[in-house]
Every structure is written in structure tokens, then in C-alpha cells.
């Protein structure tokens, strides 16, 4: 169990003075930890880091202090001017001066007694706050700090500024953080002395002290040594826990899956195309992994349209050849059905039996599928996360393929393993995740990459267009539709509200209908599964020519003869997401185009993002840009799926630490796989500190 030494910082927030349930609820909003359903704890405050500082070191003298600036002034108090009796709207003014001029210290609704005590006439005091100049006269309204000349040291010249939320005062939060720090026990060092020296890392407690009690703006910079130390700790904790999960999943399985090639041969013969070189290479890598007695944990990464599905199918065929079963899990029902539609006919020609299982299959249909799974008559099961739910028993599941894994997260992987099934695992992702992020999210999985697109693909022409030119666009679309083309029309992404998103799609549908009549279709997340299928099918077979959609089409939909992608309010989307969406066209041999509609008052960054889309189709470049412009959470889709992100580490600043943390984690676990040594015990503390203690349970479960 958790070492006692951590108890003080694992206490609930309400253990702190001045923090009741109301304040605690507010603090929960600002702590960076991904709380899930646990309440925040004292320790979470340690990692609530300032985003900037207030610098009070500027002491220009009254006359030279610019309006709006935060300054510290040494002044002599001259006289008090209370408001006229009964008129509370006039402030209480205290006049003071220094060598350069006079200033009015201004207080509204002041307590005269308190002011007389704090600012006695004739005294020398130091005040710090924001300067205001009005009609050529300087004043400071409610100085943040007032100190007697002798107590100047007590005045914080550099003050951390923390994230805020309505209702939570900075003072209350600061006090709570100070208490959290004082409760932090002395912890043994978990990093090697060598690492500390080489990277000039301060000790853990010193890093926290520097960040919460900064002496210089540099102290709270993410690039600064203190922040980097904590980021490293967090990355290390993440890498250790991933390594433990991996070691455990590996240990559980381990059987060679080798087929005789007869089904794979048939499939290859049935394909209307030949594999690209990188598809061939990926298939070879996967085949070797399957044949190996170690458990496979492989990521198949390939840009949109690079042809991952057929690679997965060939891998699954291997498992079936070996007499076992395979499962393919997709993040959405549409995608699951589409996989079934692509894979089903090919598989049938190769003599394999494919079935589907999603939340929609009920009653008789469902029980027949479950029966077929249990008796082994179903070779491949395609579906959503329903594939691994309670009551779904495979006769012999040898390979699980997970499509678009970044939406499932590591949790799912743990859940699957916890079920006692330990199939080889192939994770497919269309998000071209940079290597650094593969490491953070997946640990050291092996990676196969599809680096080329199938032959004959045409580049996609991308244009950006202000919303005002909608009419013109509709004219062009009319021509294109008359010419037999197919158009996706993606409606704005509204993060706060699915409701609004829905309305937008329905409005657009209604607006296009007069011009296009029954050629317009609509698909959105709130439709029933059957209606969604029908809408997709109508678009696929050409009954409809324009498909108005919310982002549900984002993942994986394949309509090869669609050639135009219109995205409304493109400035609201992440680059990776735009890239995914754009990848829905350009799949056939006809030239395609993508129109990014934006609000003309969109910000500079937004416009820059759109220009990246215009300039390149290279998913890796786009992902790198996205990382720079938006931060890693969105790229991985962690917001949507609730995968625990990072509290302190930020990829745009700390990516360079990741590789080192991974190597460290490996070396440490090689020396001490059970974390039993003195240093191992210290590392366990680290895992608790950063909420990675789930992995410790794996150690014990052995
Ligand atoms: P993604 O990697 O985005 O999942 P898909 O597997 O959906 O891509 O493949 C996209 C399209 O490319 C499909 O229509 C598929 O049939 C086709 N395809 C896959 N591999 C090849 C290939 N080697 N040559 C030609 N077309 C291919
Ligand atoms: Mg796909």
C-alpha cells in the first residue's frame, strides 16, 4: 500500500486551514491533475504551477513610474484625507511623496483605523501595486502590499501568479499552496546523482520551492531548471508505469502464431491492387512478431488513406490460419460497420467468417454472435469497445487490432489485459503522431510505418475561403455536383455543446436543400445507428451527392469517389483533425479539393494554422506544427477520451527529456525490475506522486 510518508500530501484539500468544501471545489478546477472521480488532494497543489510572476522589483520613483506598471515605491506618508462624512463614494486618500514627486494612495470603503495604523503620518513605508495616472496626477489604488521600511524583506518582490477560476481568490489559493508545501515530507532522491549534475536539476523539493517562491521570472519558465526537473520526474513516472504495463502484458502471453500462408495467399489474390512497399514491410514485421513467442505490442502508424486496413486484415488472416481468432475494434459504430463492409467480402473469398458486435446488436442476433465466438465458428469479430465487454468470450483470441487507438487510451489496454486475455496487439493510428508522442502515450511499443500512399493518388488542392464568399462557393459546388462529383460538408466543431453542433448541421442542411434538393444528405452523432448507416450508404451509392456532417465522418470513412471536402469554421479545428478530415477525399484517381471556410475575424494563430494546411499534405509535418501551435493533449485526442494527460510536462518544451526518461526507466527496471532497492523504493514514491501507482499494483500481481 501507499507508504505512510506520503499521508500528509494525500490528505483531502479540506485538511488545509481556510479550505472548506466550497473552496476545495474551486481549487479542484485549477489543479492540473486529471482527477477523474477522485477528489483533489493536498499533493495536487504542489503541481499547480504559476504561469507567470508579478515582478515588483521595479522601483522607478513616483514621477518616473509609468501608468499601468507594477512598481514598488519608498515613500514618506504626508497626510490622510478621509472622505467627507456620509459620502462613501469618495475614496479615502493618503498622500505621500518621494524625491521625485507626490502620490495619492487611494482606498475605497476604507477602514480609517486600519489605515491610520498601517500608514501613520510621517512614517517611511514601502508600497507596491499598480500605478495609475489621471489628469497628470499619479495614484495607486489599493496597493497590493504595504510594509514599514524595516519590514521590507517580508514584501514579496517576485510573486507567482497561479491559474485562476471565478470565486477563488489568489490569496486563498496561495495560502493553500504554501500549506501544501509545508506538508511535503522529506523524500529520498529518485534520480541518479549523475542525471542531476548533467542536467543541472535541483532536488525535487528545491524545484518546487523555486517555482512557488520565485526570485526571478526565469524561475517559473517551463524551460527553467526547476520546471524541467519536475517535468522529467513526471515523464519518468510515466515511462516506468508504461514499462511495467508492458512487462506485465508480455509476461502474460507468449505463444507463437504461425500460419501456413494459405488464407493470406487467397486474400492477396483477391485484392484488386498490389500492396505498397511499406504495406509489405509492415505485414512482414507483424508476421514475424506473431510467429515470435513474445507478445506483440505494435503500433501501425500510417497517414490517412495509406491503407492500414488491409494490413490489419492480412495480420488477422495469419491468426486464423493458425487456428485462432482475431478481433478488430473501432472507435465508432460507423467505422466498425465500414470495416465490416470492406473486410467482409474479401474475408469471405478467403474462407473466413466475419461477424460484427457493437452496442446495437441485441437479442437473438447478439446471442448467436456470442455463441459463434465461443465455439470458434466466427474467425474475425469486428466491432466497438463492446468486443471486450463482460460476457463476450472468445474460443481462442490470438490477435486484437485496435483502430485509432489514441481515442481509447492506455486504460483500455489495461482493461483488456485485466480480462485475462492476452492476445497479440496491433494498434492502428491515422494520427501521424511524432515519435516523442508515441513514447509518451504508448511507451516503447514497436512501430511499423506506412510511409507512402497507394499509387495513383492525386494531390488534394486546398484553399482557404472567408465565410462571406459562401454564395460563390455554393455556385461552384453546384457545377461540381452537376459534373457528378461528391462533396462532404463538415459543420463547425462546437466544443462546449453537442447541441449547438447539431443545430449547425441541421441549419446547413436546410440551407443547402433548396439549391440541391434530394441530393443533400445529413449525418450526425445523435442519429440512430440505422439512420446513420442509411445516410452513409446513400452517399456511397450516389443517391445523395452532398453529405452534410458533424465530425462523425472524421475517423476512417471511405468513399473513394468523393472529391470535395468543405469544412466550415475550419479555424475551430485542430490541424491533425483537419488533416484527418481532408484525408476523406483524394482516395480515388480523380483530382480532389478541400475548402477551408473561416470566419474573417479569426485570430492570427488560426489563420497561420490554416495556411499550414494549404501548404502541405504531409501528415508528419502537420502534426509537428500542431504540436507547436496547440500542445499535445489535443493532438492525442486526450480531451475527448479522458486519458490522463500530464500535469507538469509540456511537450512543446520538454520533448527532449522524454527519450532520456525512457532510457532511464529502462535501465532502472533492468537493474531492479520489482523496484525493491533503495532507489526502487524512492521511485515508487515518485509513481504515487504523479498518480501512476496503478502500475505498482501490477508489480504485486506479478
Ligand atoms: P487508412 O490507412 O486511412 O485506414 P484505408 O485502409 O481505409 O486507409 O485505405 C484507403 C483506401 O485505399 C481504401 O479504399 C483501400 O481499398 C485503398 N488501398 C489500400 N491499399 C491500397 C494499395 N496498395 N493500392 C491501392 N489502393 C489501396
Ligand atoms: Mg482506417
What does this structure look like?
- This protein has 26 helices and 21 strands.
- With 702 residues, the chain is α/β, with parallel strands linked by helices.
- The protein folds into 4 domains: 4-54 and 163-220, no CATH class; 57-155, OB fold (Dihydrolipoamide Acetyltransferase, E2P), CATH 2.40.50; 256-450, P-loop containing nucleotide triphosphate hydrolases (Rossmann fold, 3-Layer(aba) Sandwich), CATH 3.40.50.300; 460-616, P-loop containing nucleotide triphosphate hydrolases (Rossmann fold).
- The strands form 4 sheets. A 7-stranded parallel beta sheet has the order 11-12-10-13-14-9-15, sandwiched between helices. Strands 16-21-20-17-19-18 form a 6-stranded parallel beta sheet, sandwiched between helices. Strands 2-3-4-6-5 form a 5-stranded mixed β-barrel.
- Helix 19 links the parallel strand 20 (562-567) and strand 21.
- It is globular.
- It starts with 6 loop residues before the first helix and ends with a helix.
- Residues 273, 275-276, 279, 302, 304-310, 430, 454, 556, 558, 560, 587 line the site of adenosine-5'-diphosphate.
